[in-house]
Amino acid sequence: MMKTAVACLALATLLVGAPAQAATPTPSPCPTPPAVQAPQDGRQIPPINEAALRKSIAGLPAADATAAVVRVGGTKGSWRGVTGVADLRTGRKASEHVRFRAGSVTKMFTTAVVLQLVAEGKVSLDGTVQDHLPGLLPDSYPDVSIGQLLNHTSGLPAPDLPDSFEWVYETRFEKWTPREYVALAVRNPIEFAPGTRQHYLNINTLVAGMLIEKVTGRSYEHEVASRILRPVGMRDSYLPGTSVRIKGPHHQGYQSVSAGFPNAVPYEGGHVVDITNTSVTSTWASGDLVSTAADLEKFVEALFSGKVVPPAQLEPMFTVPDVMTYGKCEPASYTSGMSRLVLPGGIVAYGKTGARWGYAAGVGATRDLSRTVVYSVNSTDAKASGQNQRTLGIALASFS
User: Quick one: CA dihedral 295, 300, 301, 306, positive or negative?
Assistant: First the structure.
């Protein structure tokens, strides 16, 4: 349970709230989303633009980031880049061979394990959370299917918790359990009728992690390691559980803060605080993976080629549901476990970004693997709202 006063206050506030009630669907004022275009083939992929890639990570350390590692591959060549410093205190240079917090890239692994269980006949995408995890959701909630968890169309809400970095830093060593997190979230009403909208929230993949444990009878960490990390040869990747540290070589992660923030140090005309050591239990199966660029490159190549999930069950990871984004008149963009992105020139890529404080990571590829990219950027504001311009530049340079 949470131990600090702030965390306890948040918990108490939520637990005295009214029971969740099922939401009444309302007619959408949005137009019908356009049909999803078929992916373009790899023949449209241009040669690797080394100049653009070098420019995308130039000038580090800088105000926006302290280090970056980029790994571009595929059937049309490869490129490696690393720049910046690993540690502001010592000035030690950044290295390509380091571990980092991959954040929501973890969702690809959780989704892949569930789809493996589908292939084994142990679960069905049409099966419900209520059947597999009875009592987890309020009786007032409608049925939520496993497939809706994976593509974020479940309607499950997020917990009402402070989102300021001050609160995050104060509670950075707190330990959460998945059931504790879900209990806080489902004090809120379901957001929409399942299957009618898409809202990307951690709770979906977190519940999927709980499903994995219930169906297999083993821990989520064991299943990801035995089903993916070891078979793919991801020797430097692991799930940290309750540990707050990153094992082995890694870059320090920093967050921009105001003057006077506890433990802040001057940096590039402002101040930062070291946020490398932190609990990731609040995101668990949605965001706790520690990995390397080389390992994630192995993973995306194995996943896209059907070596992790059998081809017959892999299709949901490349399929965007035909619904609108919750609260916006925009078509959905997330698949099960990934995002679909149409790049300049019509190139279609699939992949996942992830952000933990101090770490912004991403993986992406064309479906035919003619181009792959993995990056880790030690952003000083990794979880800022909106697209991180440094990581956006890396992604565009990788496919330009």
Answer: positive
The two tokens of residue 70 are 């980029």
151 touches 335 (CB < 8 A): yes
Answer whether the bond into residue 61 is a cis peptide, omega within 30°.
yes
Residue 378 in domain? yes
The CATH number given to whatever domain includes residue 110 is 3.40.710.10
What does the block give as tokens for 58? 């130039």
Domain containing 358: what range?
39-399
Contacts of range 227-230, beta carbons closer than 8 Å, 24 or more positions apart: 227/112, 227/113, 227/116, 228/109, 228/112, 228/113, 228/299, 228/308
> Closest Cα to residue 242, out of 292, 277, 202?
277
The count of structural domains within the chain is 1
Q: Sign of torsion, CA 38 114 332 380?
A: negative
Biggest distance spanned by C-alpha atoms of the chain: 59
Summarised one tens digit per residue, pLDDT across range 344-372 is: 888 999 999 999 999 999 999 999 999 99
Residue 333 has pLDDT above 60, yes or no: yes
Range in 5-19, 162-176, 195-209, 375-389 with the lowest mean pLDDT: 5-19
SS3 69: strand
CA distances from 353 to 105, 147, 314 (A): 6, 21, 19
248, part of any domain: yes
CB atoms within 10 A of CB 27: 5
134: cis peptide before it, omega within 30°?
Answer: no
Is 5 within a domain? no
Whole-prediction pTM: 0.91
